[in-house]
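pinging the channel bc i need a second pair of eyes. not urgent but kinda urgent?? the chain im working w is below, pasted from the shared doc
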Amino acid sequence: MSELTALLIDCPEHFHNVVPFDAEKDKLILLDFTVNNRELIGPIIGNTQQFTDYINGKLGASGAKYGIGGYNEYRELYKRSTVFDSEQLGEEPRRLHLGIDIWGKPYTAVMSPLNAVVHSFAFNNDFGDYGATLILTHNIGGLSFHTLYGHLSLNSIKNLREGENVKKGDVIGEFGIQMENGQWPPHLHFQIIQDLAVPVPIARKGDYPGVCKMSESETYLANCPNPDLILNMIRYASNI
């Protein structure tokens, strides 16, 4: 268990909701994006509108406010975008998801779970990428770490400044729509990152892999603990 994971498990602080969610009132469903989900055939995942209709249909049929899941999930659906493929023919593609996705309505508010500083932000606009992206830096008990928010609206990042202070519970963004979130159904990719320079020692800004190669999974999963340690939502989710 990493130092960060242990800290988050034993953290005496209360984490604020990252999205508006009332466990007593709001229904939450688990969504499976592995090959075990036979409904997710190529034509659906390759077409953003059909993919969006699929998500909305699942939420509507179950009366759920959100769909959730995906941490440490192997997803063949990343074939929809060359962002996740190696530039070298025959090399291993990226398929293992490192965050948790929360699927819901466009413009759903996104809030900071803790006091933070704006580390960086960017518009990663390739098809299948994060779209509008924000990274916050937090400090608990002297340990610094980061949270990443992907697939936001452009409005979420237009007035930000690096180094700006953020208070726990502040609205920091909203779910984006297709043309600004990397061409995905509206959702939030939420990820915890201990060190932005792992495994490659470069100064990253506004971006960090949310999907890795299986051969690199041990390193990435150690650096990116389960986001539900902060979200605390999965226990309320039901199967479809």
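so The domain at 17-236 is CATH 2.70.70.10 (Glucose Permease (Domain IIA)). and The mean pLDDT is 94. — does that match what u expected or am i reading it wrong
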